[in-house]
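Subgroup meeting minutes
Present: P.N., E.W., G.H.
Scribe: E.W.

1. P.N. recapped why we're keeping a running log of single-chain structure predictions: easier to compare across weeks, and new members can see raw inputs and outputs side by side.
2. G.H. added today's entry (138 aa).
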Amino acid sequence: MQIKQISIFLENNAGRLAEVTGVIAKAGVDIRAISIADTADFGILRVIVNKPDAATEALVNAGFTTRVTDVLAVEIDDQPGSLAKVMKLFKDTGVNIEYLYASLEGCEGKAIVIFKVEDVAHGLKIVQEHGLSTIEKF
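Output recorded in log:
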């Protein structure tokens, strides 16, 4: 299953992350996974939350520029080599990964890897055909 990721575009200024996380918290939304990529002038904060619609609405109302995209949240064993197996599977089946990040949220002994892939439908098909577990929310 695919889940919603919110990307928030931020100026690279002191306090901007505090503002974003404050808006999300005030909306009663829980952040489950988070990643940031930055340049000298701006950053892109990516979050997976328990209430994506509420978070997006709160962020937009607070003046933040956001984008919601579908990503795959794949559950893997939390042990050496598990991620390498998924990466090889994606390589062998033509799944182009744009970026990824991980969360240890979930069952003990498992990790959740968030994949932004070029073709979500193809990526999901490959994951399902090979018996990998996906989550639709966390």
